[in-house]
Design a protein that fits this description.
Length: 382
């Protein structure tokens, strides 16, 4: 039945076991072999309950709604956008609030759907809805009738205590909506995940639908580039001191998508290194990139040796595919980077935002400053 469904709707498909936390054993199958193995994993984890299959929508944007309702009426809400496309667990995603790249019509549709869900379910208290949007078509991924991990994040960003509101409603006290006027908010806050891959020997440090992060940070800035840089640095990410950066951009579509960012890195004075496909593509498009060979190619100079010898400051490695194969060259490069303390980015959207942030920092070094939370909130009450 699963194989027939996948054949009917077309790959990729999403496999979701029932009654598991943090997306355990949740996977995206890109072919029949993946599907068979993932189904086996999912049923072994939750054998007494059904495994849900759905069509996985590629290159869709994920949107987070944190809200409080009373007797089915929406009281307060916050809409965050994910930097990464849908397919990364919300606990591992980088969130931006207020959203910076959502269409007004998309925001209206998200709010309209949220109101209908709250009314239909007669919600009194906190709830969280995850949406995906593609070509301005908005779909619900899931609705959780509880406070989410992003409730403290949105509360701090907007200076509105969502949990206090929800608690008062749940014990029967009357509340009024707190005014949140986005026109009065000059700042941006970004929540970034923290990982413990250095302590998890052999784990592949990439973002998937199954949650892998073990913590998170949130940082403020006057724009998304400042907030993103602060958030990344707070997670332990190190900016390239010697400006030696490896780019292994994965499939052709990713190489094309990252080409402008590669040019920007070159203009900033970064020295680019790449695997064979990436180096050839960048060089043919005017971006000087030195060739380093993959582990399986058994040639010099070797990518892994450069990482081990401290010759590389940062690795941008976009996986060729997200299937089951573990011992790929990409995995070895990512794992070596983590084991030797080299900063790693394995998501294309995050890599593009990082380059944009570095360009901003080069032009505006005096604007990159540390402020206390009260300084950002002062603008809301002036």
């Amino acid at each position: 039945a699963a194989i027939k469904f996948a054949g009917d709707v077309g790959y990729p498909v999403l496999i979701r076991p029932s009654y598991v936390l943090s997306g355990a054993a949740m996977n995206v199958a890109y072919d029949r072999k993946d599907l068979s193995e993932y189904i086996e994993m999912a049923t072994s984890l939750s054998s007494e309950h059904p495994v849900v299959l759905s069509k996985f929508i590629v290159n869709a944007k994920e949107i987070e709604m944190d809200a409080v309702a009373m007797n089915g009426t929406l009281i307060n809400y916050a809409i965050s956008e994910h930097v990464e496309n849908a397919g990364v667990h919300s606990g591992d995603a980088t969130l931006i609030l207020p959203p910076q790249k959502l269409y007004v019509e998309t925001i209206k549709r998200v709010k309209r759907i949220t109101k209908r869900i709250a009314k239909t379910l007669k919600i009194s208290g906190p709830f969280n809805i995850q949406f995906l949007s593609k070509d301005n078509d908005v779909k619900v991924i899931e609705c959780n009738m509880r406070a989410s991990r992003s409730f403290p994040f949105v509360s701090k960003t907007y200076n509105v205590n969502f949990i206090d509101l929800a608690t008062r409603i749940m014990i029967g006290k009357a509340v009024r909506p707190k005014l949140i006027d986005l026109a009065d908010i000059d700042h941006v806050c970004i929540k970034a995940p923290m990982f413990s891959f250095t302590r998890l020997q052999g784990a592949d440090p990439i973002l998937r639908v199954e949650m892998a992060s073990t913590g998170e940070v949130a940082c403020f800035g006057m724009n998304k580039w400042e907030a993103f840089l602060k958030a990344m640095l707070s997670t332990g990410f190190k900016l390239p001191k010697n400006k030696n950066v490896v780019v292994s951009a994965g499939p052709l579509s990713s190489k094309i998508d990252f080409l402008d960012e590669a040019r920007q890195l070159q203009n900033l004075g970064y020295h680019l290194y790449g695997t064979q496909g990436t180096a050839k593509f960048f060089n043919s498009n005017g971006v000087e990139t030195k060739l380093l060979y993959k582990p399986s190619e058994k040639k010099e100079p070797q990518m892994v040796d450069y990482l081990k010898e401290g010759k590389i400051d940062m690795v941008i490695n976009i996986p060729e595919a997200m299937g089951l194969e573990e011992l790929t060259d990409g995995y070895r490069i990512r794992r070596t980077a983590v084991d030797f303390g080299v900063s790693l980015i394995s998501n294309l959207k995050c890599a593009k935002l990082l380059v944009a942030a570095l360009v901003w920092l080069k032009k505006n070094p005096e604007e990159f400053e540390v402020k206390c939370w009260q300084d950002y909130m002062a603008a809301l009450v002036e």
